[in-house]
Amino acid sequence: MPPSSPDDGACGPCSVEEVLDRIGSKWSVCILVAASGAPIRFSALERAIPGISRRMLTLTLRNLERDGLLVRTSYPTVPPRVEYSLTPMALELQTALTALTGWAERHRSDVAASRSRYDERPA
Description:
By secondary structure, the protein is mainly α. The protein is built from 5 helices and 3 strands; from the N terminus they run ααβααββα.
């Protein structure tokens, strides 16, 4: 892909494709949806997102924080308590993510049936 120019919808060094890649990854969507109600702790995120490894959760949280979608708040307690909450930018994204995940929930059986029909076709 050629470098972005100011006229192609890019935001500095971030292309639209890079931003969509971040917010469109399955783990990012799961984390942003899980954190939508209130600040959430790492362990609660781990429980709320089946199949995510600790390493992937940590990496995705760092990337979302770096991109300005999450705020990490550390409390000086023993043991340390860390919470993640959505930024105003992520809250703006929340409507689209809720619609997207709702659509996926409503149509997952349709997609599974379509896949079965496709896979059963003669070659």
